[in-house]
Specification:
five-stranded mixed beta sheet, about 220 residues, 5 helices, alpha+beta
Length: about 220
Amino acid sequence: MEGPFIRVEDTGEVVPLRPEITTIGRGRGVDVRLADPSVSRLHAEFVRRGPYLYVVDLGLSRNGTRVNGRPIARRVLDDGDVVSFGAARCRVGGIPREDFAPEVELRRAAAPELTRREVDVLTSLCRPALSDEAFVAPATAREIADDLVVTEAAVKQHLLRLYQKFRIPEGINRRTRLANEVVALGLVRPTPVVPPQRTSGPGESPPPQTANRRAS
């Protein structure tokens, strides 16, 4: 087979990689679908740049991506590397051999300067994806508008500027790619869920901490 490919270890299926980007996940819309429940609906991407191939964990997966057993964010691949998406394993082949250090991860660019409103839009965009689900699609422009109490047209203008600032090319899954980059750069982080405190009903004793506080 000419060009890079992956071999799915569970099934032995050999899949050639697309010329630019190949998406991996459990969802129906990805290029390579893995049925393992530990795989997110949109889990990672293989990216080809000239003779080189690297894998990108999309940052919204609970189980992460590993290369030869090591967790990665981005990683240049060498022929024969084993890439794990959750518990699903694939072996990479068809990559030209070169004296190149595959252990080196590609450094992410520094975050662009953002306005306060752009930060609000990004936070709202990423909020669904930072839930407890393995992967949930980022918010739509309509959902962001409702969240921020602004017009959908205003949100779309902000998103267009953000695509430019983060250099997100046109194409499918553009909002998802923006959310991935924002989360990977640490600009938006999951907010710990604080369980609601239980209030005492009629005739019930208060929780121990409350009771101790009242007794002190």
